[in-house]
Design a protein that fits this description.
It contains 24 helices and 21 strands. With 647 residues, the protein is an alpha/beta fold. The strands form six sheets. A six-stranded mixed sheet has the order 1-5-6-10-12-11. A five-stranded mixed sheet has the order 4-3-2-13-14, with helices on one face.
Length: 647
């Protein structure tokens, strides 16, 4: 009997073990599939983000084209309102005109600033208080004064009693900054920080993040270090949200703040070197990176990545005088040498602000972003050896875990904005560096209702958002895609193979994405594995502001809406939100000429006149752009294939 019971128990144990293994394998499979979907979604976000930055970088060509090819924009007003290089006023020009009323209930800073002011500011921002424009300007002017005393590269020494905390991109994510301070402590003389650029843009609390960092720097200028990122750039801010945030929060003095901030950016150090071993820069390096030259560059001449140095070899004086006619405040031939970096110097700074590491050997153009380069492990080794360094710490790229180590441990990326693309999309991280000790990585994620949900629900949210913005990208190129599909559809069946469809998507959109996998979410596929290519545009369309307008015109304006918004923001220098009909037409004419966009001028005239509803001769361009919004009539993903249903 004993033997029989033992045998029976063994069989039950085997069954239980097999069942546990089945469940375990199923769970692992589901989790792996969810992680794969999450990676696809992040790839979409990143690819579209970089494509947008590439478009932004290409505007530098447009502005150069503007200066070199046109002698006037507005015959009636030779000074124009378009000012790409504004002259910043001194402190006394602003501060004497601004008063802080007794009714103001926000934080009141006391100069010279102390640790108490850091605490005061943090607590006030936790309660959604707005710092008065008077104090914002005081902080900016004081910061500029201290920054002008800094070298291009800050040389930092750690000691047994004092380490260093390194933070990457924050992008206006105030909750992330609060969480870092909660976990790691407020900045102080005994708790030094290095913030590695991109403090602003994208997030909705950029001014609050910036003020906390600058006030901390003013209190502890030897212990709080600030590097310039590619978003510490007044023209980048016009596109990615910080300019709009300032003008919304400071309606009366916003323009003064922006003009002062533009000058502060130029004085930020462009890098740091820790213990003569670790190079900390925002982006990366190139094979031509010359740290000796970068140490000597007059960094304050780097106004914006979108304002490359003017040609110094032109023999046509009329071209060189364009700046006097097109843009008030633009440089002229007589002061080019004193006001601008050389092309080589400008490219050196672009490389360290915009470049990204890759696993492939060599150095080649950063085609994803349109600026800087991709640098391989051999380039890293060469540069480190040349300057007797051990490691590069950089930021600039959102990483799923908040940090990433590559190039055999010689390059470390740290990114401090969690939930960057979407709630639950990524963790944030910071690095603790002690004297003579290994680097410590601390990860976190600001918790909200989305992050508390199970993994499959979080992935669904991220995936849905990614597919949504990808569909908007697709619909903006509907005409071009349809033409390409039809050229490949030799039998005129309305169908293509998945491979042909994927190749068409890549060739038109230029997004480096796994299109074959994404086809499951974007198009209808029949039982033979063929794609109904017109289903690429199902359940989505661009709302037409003018019903009679051609679809090509609507798609084109939608595609370039961000570029045009930025150009018009520059024209609208008084920040009124209004531009004249002539400015609208002329700028579009220049823009379409440079980008070789073939649209009948009469269509633009008709559209502009129709949008001028009150017939006052000007256009509220923000409303104009908002008219070109994408309508999603069906929000759910294509999950008809049960094999790929959400777990």
């Amino acid at each position: 009997m004993g033997c029989g019971n033992s045998s029976l128990n063994n069989k039950k144990s085997e069954k239980a073990l097999k069942a546990a293994l089945v469940i375990q394998n199923w769970y692992r499979g589901c989790r792996a599939w969810l992680r794969a979907r999450q990676q696809y979604a992040l790839a979409i976000f990143e690819s579209i983000e970089y494509a947008d930055e590439q478009s932004q970088m290409q505007l530098s060509d447009f502005f150069s084209f503007l200066l070199e090819n046109y002698t006037h924009l507005h015959k009636k007003d030779p000074e124009l309102s378009c000012q790409l290089r504004k002259s910043t006023k001194d402190r006394q020009d602003y501060m004497g005109l601004i008063e802080v009323p007794d009714s103001y209930d926000g934080p009141r800073l006391q100069f010279p600033l102390t640790f108490t002011d850091i605490v005061l500011l943090v607590e006030a921002f936790k309660h959604q208080k707005i710092l008065h424009a008077y104090y914002v300007l005081e902080v900016l002017f004081e910061t500029k004064k201290f920054l002008k005393q800094k070298l291009n590269f800050t040389h930092i020494k750690t000691s047994p009693s004092k380490g260093l905390t390194i933070c990457g991109d924050l992008h206006g994510k105030l909750d992330d900054l609060f969480l870092i301070f909660y976990k790691n402590g407020l900045p102080s003389g005994n708790n030094p920080y290095l913030f590695n650029g991109d403090f602003v843009d994208r997030g909705r609390n950029s001014i609050e993040v910036l003020m906390i960092l600058l006030v901390s720097f003013l209190v502890y200028p030897k212990d709080i270090h600030l590097n310039r990122g590619n978003h510490e750039d007044f023209m980048m801010n016009m596109r990615y949200g910080f300019t709009k945030e300032i003008l919304n929060k400071y309606k009366l003095h916003g323009k003064k703040i922006l003009q002062t901030l533009e000058d502060v950016y130029t004085w930020l150090p462009i890098g740091a070197i820790i213990d003569n071993k670790i190079l900390v820069i925002h982006g990366g390096i190139a094979e031509s990176t010359d740290l000796n030259l970068l140490h000597c560059i007059e960094r304050n001449k780097m106004k914006s990545v979108l304002l490359p140095p003017a040609s110094r070899n032109s023999t046509e004086p009329e071209k060189m005088k364009v700046g006097e006619i097109i843009m008030s405040g633009i440089i002229t031939p007589k002061d080019v040498s004193s006001e601008q970096l050389s092309k080589k110097e400008w490219e050196q700074i672009i490389d360290i602000l915009w470049s990204d590491p890759r696993g492939t050997k060599g150095c080649f153009p950063n085609t994803g972003r349109g600026g800087g380069c991709y640098f391989g492990p051999d380039i890293t080794t060469n540069i480190l050896n040349k300057y007797h360094l051990k490691r590069i710490i950089r930021s600039h790229e959102c990483r799923p875990e908040g940090y990433e180590i590559c190039h055999d441990g010689k390059v470390i990326t740290v990114f401090s904005a969690s939930n960057y693309y979407e709630d639950g999309s990524n963790r944030g991280a910071y690095i603790r560096l002690g004297y003579g000790t290994a680097l410590e990585f601390f990860q976190y994620q600001v918790t909200n209702s989305t992050c508390l949900k199970p993994l499959h629900q979080r992935v669904n949210v991220i995936e849905s958002s990614a597919i949504r913005i990808l569909k908007e990208k697709i619909i903006s190129r509907k005409t071009d895609l349809t033409h390409t599909f039809q050229l490949r559809d030799y039998s005129k069946s309305g169908k293509l193979s998945v491979t042909q469809w994927a190749f068409s998507m890549e060739s038109i959109l230029g997004l480096n994405l796994p299109w074959r996998t994404l086809s499951l979410y974007l198009v209808k596929i029949d039982k033979d594995g063929c794609v109904d290519y017109m289903s690429s545009f199902q359940d989505i369309h661009i709302e037409k502001p003018v019903e009679e307008a051609e679809s090509t015109l609507i798609e084109t304006l939608y595609r370039y809406r961000s570029d045009l918004q930025m150009v018009f923001n520059i024209i609208d220098s008084d920040c009124s939100g209004q531009i004249s009909m002539e400015e609208f037409w002329t700028t579009w004419k220049l823009f379409s000429s440079h980008y070789n966009v073939q649209i009948d001028d009469s269509q633009i005239d008709e559209l502009a006149n129709t949008m001028d509803l009150n017939k006052d001769g000007s256009i509220d361009f923000n409303e104009f752009l908002k008219a070109f919004y994408v309508v999603h009539t069906y929000e759910k993903l294509n999950t008809s294939n049960a094999k790929h249903s959400h777990y």
